[in-house]
Amino acid sequence: MRRDRRLGRVRGLRAFAAVGIALVGAAAAVPAALADDSVSVQVEIPAAGRLAVSDAQLRWGLNAESSSGAHAFGCNFLSAGAAGDAGSSRAWTKADGLYRATAADVRVEKPGADGRMRVATWDTRCQDRTGATVTSSATSTTTESEVVIDAGGGYVDQGERSARIAWKGSFTVVMYGGLTYWSATDPVLTVVDGVGTLTATGSGYAADREDASRWLPLEARTITLARFAHVELGATGFVVTPEYVGVRGSSAQAARTSANAAYWGSFPADFVAFQVETGQSSYWYTSGGERDRFKVALPVTVSFDADDPVAPPAPGPGATAAPSPQPTNAVTTPPADDPGNDPTSSGAPPTPGGGGPASGGPGTGAPLPGTGTPLPTSPGGSFAATAASTVLAATPLIPVAQHVGGWLGDRDPLLLGSLGFVAVVGTVAAAGFARGWLVVPWL
Q: Interior CA angle at 25 toward 20 and 26, to 5°?
């Protein structure tokens, strides 16, 4: 009996040793089989949660007034690049060469009759999507022109609700056919904890409609093109409407009443102060004119990858029809002055709740002139950014991950075969030594 037990223990030790030898040998064979095609991979992991972007796209029409008919000299329009010196306050001509539809990474687009966006031209700059010439009537259509800038670089951190993207390039906003114009250069988007700004270097020429002889180059300075109360960073980008409704940006602003409450507001105070010098200030806040509804800031679309752009809000029938009816909510007095919105201030953000819906009264999200799609509003009355729903298409968080995945996929059959060989050898060896079919000399 004792001899049988000792024999069983010996056979068990032999089986264990044999299995170990087989496993070591098979494991050594796997890297040898892979050595011929081995790839050295260097992985650089960016800051946790950050997505690096190198070809972001900015798309914006500023406001409907920027693409409308003018009271004289044709229309207001957008131009790519920083326009040169016209020499005086006068209407541009094609021969001047001041107008450009494209300039490096900047272009001006407008929709055709089929709704598809096309690069604008000198001949189409004052036409709506049907080919009709826009007018200064309060019921006129607009050209729906937009500035598009590609090649933006920076980062997006969805976890921190933060981002910074900078673009290189300029665009020019031309009013009264050229009597007054200014340029924005190198826009920068900054988002911190969901609150954002879009800034640029403003330049241009001082003009005065009361004195056509006044024409002086302005000192370039940083201006706030737009403020965003709530930015929702989507997977591939976002659409957000700047603060305008409810914002006081100028002491010359008309009083808010029940007739204009839905669109009463202003672009940022430092922006308006800059426009006082260009001669365009009243185009950027409620001044009491019949065109006030066209001055409301339009949505800004930012795509993290220009090759996979976020779809901007569809213009819809509002682009070719009269603006929506006026609201009747009773508001008779303007809001109290806010130092943060004083034109002489440094451009500090307005007080919370300063934004509001662009048309149709608080919370209604009714369409604006030149648009036709109601935008969602937050309970507080300000527009919430619309996150993109498309699949992430920008630079991967770990750029080499996709290549590593493919490298392993090419070798799956070899790895599976090697592991299968190990399993078979181990099983046969264990059974053979247990039954005495195999013997290890030193045991």
A: 100
